[in-house]
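User: tokens in, sequence out, please.
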């Protein structure tokens, strides 16, 4: 019988909203890289790399403003909707948060339904 080996990862799980909060805290001068990475559980190297890209102007991230708002579509997970600091930050920077109802994100996410679903189907057919 073959052995099965499950590798346990020591990587920290972090969310996109935590990364954005960490970036805004560092760029706003409220804390340094190490403190932000510890508070928001974001790897320090990832935080440094992203901020370097933003400062060089090579980041593909959108820069929302009150006069030029951005729509952010989220699923209804509690980490997205119950983080008061994230909600206040999005309001301050002109980001409109739209939360999808629970248990229907798979039906409402346009890329999953309109692009990734057919791509996956056709790819599976081609490799068989």
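Assistant: Sequence out:
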């Amino acid at each position: 019988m073959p052995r099965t080996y499950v590798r346990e990862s020591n990587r920290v799980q972090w969310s996109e909203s935590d990364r954005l909060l960490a970036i805004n805290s560092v760029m706003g001068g409220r804390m340094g890289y190490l403190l932000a990475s510890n508070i928001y559980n974001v790897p320090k190297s990832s935080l440094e790399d992203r901020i370097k890209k933003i400062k060089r102007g090579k980041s593909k991230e959108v820069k929302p403003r009150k006069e030029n708002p951005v729509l952010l579509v989220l699923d209804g997970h509690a980490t997205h909707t119950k983080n008061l600091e994230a909600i206040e930050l999005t309001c301050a920077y002109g980001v409109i948060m739209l939360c999808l109802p629970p248990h229907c994100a798979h039906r409402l996410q346009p890329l999953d339904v309109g692009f990734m679903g057919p791509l996956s189907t056709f790819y599976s057919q081609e490799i068989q």
